[in-house]
Records
---
Amino acid sequence: MSSISIIGLGNMAGALAGRALAGGNAVEIIGRDRVKAKELAAALGGATVGTFGTAPAGHIVILAVPYASVLPVVAHYGDALAGKVIIDICNPIAPDLKGFATPDGSSAAHEVAKAVPASAHVVKAFNTVFGHILAPGRQLDVLFAGDDTRAKTSVSAFIESLGLRPLDAGGLEVARWLEAAGLLMISLANHGVGNFNFTLGVSILS
Ligand SMILES: NC(=O)c1ccc[n+]([C@@H]2O[C@H](COP(=O)([O-])OP(=O)(O)OC[C@H]3O[C@@H](n4cnc5c(N)ncnc54)[C@H](OP(=O)(O)O)[C@@H]3O)[C@@H](O)[C@H]2O)c1
């Protein structure tokens, strides 16, 4: 069992929190609007509600906010994130859906890693899974990347607890390509697949 804090109250926060609770994890919901956070926690059942900006209860902290907000949120938390395993789930896609809002050559995960306390460890995960696909409890692949082995072990165990298959994609430099995969998925939805009811997985052939 893991202890998880989720910052954000939207689609991904709700989907991840639901699966995390079903998997027996301790879940803390945190939002800038405490009333909305309480409503989400009550709807989920079994989650606690944290205070935005104060030290999260969870060992793992999921940043479930848009890329435009993620660095301000991390800055707002400051040292309160010290020692935490931070999961960045952002798809920092530009409004024209043709590129990224991140600085050239960087990634959302790298920008988050630069902003968190030195004792915190960032793992990129869940950005290649659509929230509505995650919600119903299907078995899916979750690609993740990060530089700290212990942090990745924690995140991998957490992913397994959700009934999902964790697939280690490598170091944090790979986050850039996971984010590119997020853009690829949106492009597939808007072209060949024609809808968002699909997932990205790996078929391992014997
Ligand atoms: N949706 C997907 O299928 C999907 C898949 C993979 C990855 N992602 C990534 O997951 C992240 C969340 O996506 P989502 O679809 O869950 O978005 P969403 O439904 O729009 O929810 C975003 C949440 O972020 C909160 N937020 C925004 N700015 C904030 C700030 N400055 N301080 C505190 N909270 C703030 C919002 O708070 P309020 O409720 O107070 O407005 C809202 O609860 C994004 O980075 C996205 O790229 C999404």
Note: Residues 8-13, 31-33, 36, 64-67, 69, 72-73, 89-91, 127, 130-131 surround NAP (CB under 6 Å).
---
Amino acid sequence: MSTTERPRILVVGGGYVGLYAARRILKKMRYGEATVTVVDPRSYMTYQPFLPEAAAGSISPRHVVVPLRRVLPKAEVLTGRVTTIDQDRKVATIAPLVGEAYELPFDYLVIAMGAVSRTFPIPGLAEQGIGMKGIEEAIGLRNHVLEQLDKADSTTDEDVRRKALTFVFVGGGFAGAETIGEVEDMARDAAKYYTNVSREDMRFILVDAADKILPEVGPKLGQYGKEHLEGRGVEVYLSTSMDSCVDGHVVLKNGLEVDSNTIVWTAGVKPNPVLSRFGLPLGPRGHVDTQTTLQVQGTDYVWAAGDNAQVPDLVGRKAGNENAWCPPNAQHALRQARVLGDNVISGMRGFPQKEYSHANKGAVAGLGLHKGVAMIVMGKMKIKLKGRLAWYMHRGYHGLAMPTWNRKIRVFADWTLAMFLKREVVSLGAMETPREEFYEAAKPAPAPAAAKAEPSPAKTEEKAKAS
Ligand SMILES: Cc1cc2nc3c(=O)[nH]c(=O)nc-3n(C[C@H](O)[C@H](O)[C@H](O)COP(=O)(O)OP(=O)(O)OC[C@H]3O[C@@H](n4cnc5c(N)ncnc54)[C@H](O)[C@@H]3O)c2cc1C
């Protein structure tokens, strides 16, 4: 980390907001005006809307992430976690990947730490659940699902087989509905190559505590999404929740019990709990409380945006809803980041702040190859699309929203190749323990006990002579 005479703008989190805000600040800044430092435990930004497609193998996982050091060459990028912030001393504590934690002074602060999975104390969930917030989880899920097909194909034990072929997804929002849609599609495709596994042998279950799925696209398209998934053999249980899943034995509130090796948890997000150690005003659900300018309430040097902030929704408020807040999605995160970047520059130079206002443009969701739903808002009109056309909208929108031309081109290239080549259905589960096989090979020679048990050939010869 550089020591600098220039003021430091510390950006906590290099996700959607962090990356775009830092780029904006660097673009607008005069040469040498400030040092921009971005801290994130990962060295890359993840485009989360593509995680379900990465889990299904439609996009290469590496193409869904953007290396921070490459896209922010003029920033100082630190790989580590901000653990506390002392607002009086204007100092943040950084826990790097290795070594001692250290303090980093700053003059201006941007809080962009996003959200974490919202979980409940359900017995077995911590041990059995898989989240869908990062690329590691998407790769893990893909390998895991394909491994279950391998297992089921090669066992004679009916219980093992049934457990392997039962897949439970909890949460039917964007993340859950898209992930089950994509993974079911992949498993259906993969089953063609297995002798003893067919799609009919598999059980896909989607559970949600609400009475609908995909609330982001409205009730009608949500209902369509549900019926579409059911038409593909997915069991959808609404207004129910998971009571426990100890050792993979899933018990739902509606009385259903199944055994499953795969429990995917996508039941919503909550602001990063670390925020409580930042000495900033928080809203009732733990978000950083911001003004319409994205400046944190009661401060003139801290800004926040994205999933970790509660930002007043000016459009909703103008329409009469006094308690309207911007929903946590990529659409807002991207636009807030731009306004935030401009406001940091204005704040540094003592100029007035701009207000953030954005009218919802709609939502798109992919449910597997050639399947999707889309709601496009144009003024007062809402255009609802489903099926192949909606899926093209989904791909077109997200393909273009993917940060950097490098990644856009790679993603479109993946899709184009997939039109001509068959989907990759190999499980690389051993990737999680890459050293295991080498360790076995390089292990020291067998212990003396083993040597005793098997007499050496020389001794056997001696004995034979004596008798
Ligand atoms: C599976 C999935 C599908 C989605 N699909 C859609 C969609 O179709 N459309 C849509 O609009 N939105 C979608 N979203 C939501 C969208 O991705 C988020 O709203 C958006 O990423 C929020 O941006 P952010 O910058 O606030 O948070 P993030 O992009 O999550 O970035 C937060 C960053 O902070 C870092 N961080 C965490 N803790 C610390 C720490 N202690 N110190 C430093 N850094 C830290 C993280 O590593 C991360 O890089 C989806 C989300 C998921 C999970």
Note: The first strand starts at residue 8 and ends at 12.
